[in-house]
Amino acid sequence: MNQKFANDIQSGLSATQKSIPYIYFYNERGSWLFQQIMQLPEYYLTACEICILDTYKGKLLEYFQAKKKGFNLVDLGAGDASKTKILLQDYVEKGVPFTYTPVDLSTSILSALSESLDAAYPDLKHQAMNKEYWDAMEILKDNTPKSERKVVLFLGANIGNFTYEESVDFLTTLKSYLNPGDQVLIGFDLKKRPEIIYKAYLDSKGITAAFNLNLLHRINQELGGNFKPNYFRFYPYYNPQTGELRSHLVSQKDQTVTIDALNMEVKFEQWESIHTEISKKHTIKEIESLAAAAGFTIKEHFLDNKAYFVDTLLEI
Q1: What is the pLDDT of residues 20-40, one digit of tens each?
Q2: 247 alpha carbon, distance to own chain's centre
Q3: CB within 10 Å: which end of the chain, N or C, has fewer?
Q4: pTM for this structure?
């Protein structure tokens, strides 16, 4: 049994406002479902970031190579690296000296990624790391030559899962593993028309709902829960003032759930919710405030052609 998972579930479901930390979305099935979400037409974030990386791959390379002999492209939460491969393809073709380090918790996804990299780019130096972010960064901090720049990719608007304070903490912690001259390319979803945001989460195929409901399946499988996921309904709520989209699983009836491994009963009133995720939408001004608070310099903002999304390059 994963003790941290067990402790977090017990704490989250005992609270007045029940919640499950978003990090538990990404078991094997959850990671697979998220790959499906990224391919949905309503999920504009992927297409926007692909547009950015394809348009500015050359400009990014100028930054990555400036004043350094080579660089290590560290991809936090790499998944299948479908977007990162835009950069890999271009840089391999140009004979750029660099190393690629994908970091992910999914063993199967990393294995498939390594096989695909060997097949597509036989000359690419790459080393997958099946670890938590900070465990991976600790190893890289100790083993990366100072002459080689670390370029950390944190794509896909993952930082939107954090509150402002948590975002500052994340960036400050990340900075502690970096050296002067190291860089971070980080994706931010921008504020836009609320209906566009809603459609990205209330997709027509219901995959985002399945992604959220998979949390209940995971509790059943790993902790002996008896959740009936069909008794819950996925509901996202967007506040255009704060830019926060909050996802909930709403109980459709009065019910009691038991979780054997925790020796726990969880009572739900009809329409009571479990909060699962924050997905924060930013402004450029907010991004600049975050970077300054964490001690980074902004090199450049790279926006897609609709200005829906931005990849911001930071440097120590």
Answers
A1: 999 899 888 998 898 899 889
A2: 15
A3: N
A4: 0.90
What count of other Cβ atoms lies within 10 Å of the Cβ of residue 127? 12
d(CA 30, CA 211): 6
Residue range 55-70: average pLDDT? 93
* Cα–Cα dist 238/280, whole Å: 9
232: Cβ–Cβ under 8 A, 6 or more apart, which residues? Answer: 213, 216, 249, 250, 251, 252, 274
Question: Would you state the structure tokens that stand for residue 52, as one six-digit string?
Answer: 């950015």
- Predicted confidence (pLDDT) at residue 143 exceeds the cutoff of 90: no
Would you list the DSSP string of the chain? --HHHHHHHHHHHHSSS-B--GGGG-SHHHHHHHHHHHT-TT-HHHHHHHHHHHHHHHHHHHHHHTT-SEEEEEEET-TT-TTHHHHHHHHHHTT--EEEEEE-S-HHHHHHHHHHHHHH-TT-EE--B-S-HHHHHHHHHHHS-TTEEEEEEE-TTGGGGS-HHHHHHHHHHHHHT--TT-EEEEEEEBP--HHHHHHHHS-TT-HHHHHHHHHHHHHHHHH-B---GGGEEEEEEEETTTTEEEEEEEESS-EEEEEGGGTEEEEE-TT-EEEEEEEE-B-HHHHHHHHHHHTPEEEEEEE-TTSSEEEEEEE-
